[in-house]
Amino acid sequence: MLSGRDRGKIGKIIKVESAKMRVVVEGLNLLKKNKRPKKQGEKGEIISIPRAVDYSNVAIVCPSCKKSSRIGFNLLKNSGLESKVRVCKKCGANI
Question: Is the alpha carbon torsion for 69, 52, 5, 47 positive or negative?
């Protein structure tokens, strides 16, 4: 996360909402919600639900340098075929 109260924390992306340009990150931007008891004798509880965050507030962490970075693309030529490969802008390693 790049901004907000969870700035600097790392988590996995659970869900991508491409139409709204938002992502849900596991364990970050949590909303506490009261859950009422459904049956008699059951207790109510407070549960934490992760909420969606804008794309611009999230960055990918490079597995080799362990830093948040931007992504670039390189073309690899294998036996006449070209394929795109994601590359870390800081260290140049393949992601």
Answer: negative
Q: Which residue has the tokens 């393949």?
A: 94
Q: Which of 20, 25, 35 is nearest to 2 (CA)?
A: 25
The residue whose two tokens read 């924390």 is: 9
pLDDT digits (tens, 9 = 90+) for 32-45: 999 999 999 999 99
Distance (Å, whole) CA 88 – CA 62? 6
Owner of token pair 């590359």:
87
Model pTM score? 0.75
Domain ranges in the chain are: 1-58, 59-95
4: left (phi over 0), alpha (psi -120 to 50) or beta: left
